[in-house]
Amino acid sequence: MTTIDARQRILQDNEAAAARLRARFERTGTLAINLISSPGSGKTALLEATARRLAGRVRMAAVVGDVATELDAERLRAAGLRAEQIVTQGACHLDARMVDGALAGAGFGEVDLFLIENVGNLVCPTSYDLGERFKVALCSVTEGADKPFKYPGIFAKAAVTLITKSDLLPHVRFDLAAVEGQVRALNPDAEVLLCSAHDGTGLDAWCALLERRIAACKACATSG
Ligand SMILES: Nc1nc2c(ncn2[C@@H]2O[C@H](COP(=O)(O)OP(=O)(O)OP(=O)(O)O)[C@@H](O)[C@H]2O)c(=O)[nH]1
Ligand SMILES: [Mg+2]
Q: For 200-206, which contacts have Cβ atoms below 8 Å and span 24 or more sequence positions?
């Protein structure tokens, strides 16, 4: 009798598809990022604000995963982004094949910045490489200050952690220093930014980070 570790096989297949995506992004000098957070922590709001700020300077497109509805893609299009919805029909994360299929269907052409909004979930999306340059974790100030240590996988892997909805800080109990300390303990190299899509706090720093990383991707594509 042969025992097949199905999860291992699924992740191996995903790695192969992610490697193909990554090679494509590297060829075109595209910065691809994968946004992961619990439902409602502000991924789409951040992308709407990012699209408005970088419009005219950066060629952008997005794919967004949800278990049902096309609501987020509609919001992103209304903010001026070219966007394709992936409806996972219940699956709790995106995988690289879904992203590849959405890219093929959408025909975005070459872009400088490819934004992937994952299904709202702090656990499952962490295991699936989507060919991105780096993962971005979001944690809103309404979620409680214990989240990095309770869900360490994503905060350990994400190159950038955004603490979102900072405009609500005066109204909630949230120990900002404790959250920053947890993220740094899990990932000493992570960049941690405090931001608000509503009042614009931190968005200059966030967009500057993206533009720096886009320039680095372009330099690698032209030199390599
Ligand atoms: N006060 C405040 N509310 C925000 C901010 N960002 C998002 N919200 C609100 O939080 C709610 C959820 O925001 P979304 O952007 O839809 O969150 P999401 O992470 O994309 O949610 P899912 O796609 O369902 O996982 C909405 O009511 C937003 O208006 C913010 O910076 N400040
Ligand atoms: Mg969303």
A: 200/49, 201/166, 201/167, 202/162, 202/166, 203/49, 203/50, 203/53, 206/46, 206/50, 206/162
Atom of ligand 1 nearest to the CA of 121: 25
* Ligand 1 within 6 A of CB of 43: yes
What's the pLDDT tens digit per position in 147-201? 999 999 999 999 999 999 999 999 999 999 999 999 999 999 999 999 999 999 9
- The distance in angstroms from the start CA to the end CA of the chain is 47
Query: Which residue's C-alpha comes closest to atom 8 of ligand 1?
Result: 42
203/42 Cα distance (integer angstroms):
13
Please tell me the pTM assigned to this model: 0.96
The finding on whether 164 has its CB within 6 A of some atom of ligand 1 is yes
Secondary structure in 3-state letters for the chain:
CCCCCHHHHHHHHHHHHHHHHHHHHHHHCCEEEEEECCCCCCHHHHHHHHHHHHCCCCCEEEEEEECCCCHHHHHHHHCCCEEEEEECCCCCCCCHHHHHHHHHHHCCCCCCEEEEECCCCCCHHHHCCCCCCEEEEEEECCCCCCHHHHCHHHHHHCCEEEEECHHHHHHCCCCHHHHHHHHHHHCCCCEEEECCCCCCCCHHHHHHHHHHHHHHHHHHHHHC
Shortest-distance ligand to the CA of residue 202: 1
Would you say the C-alpha torsion 182, 22, 222, 46 has a positive or negative sign?
negative
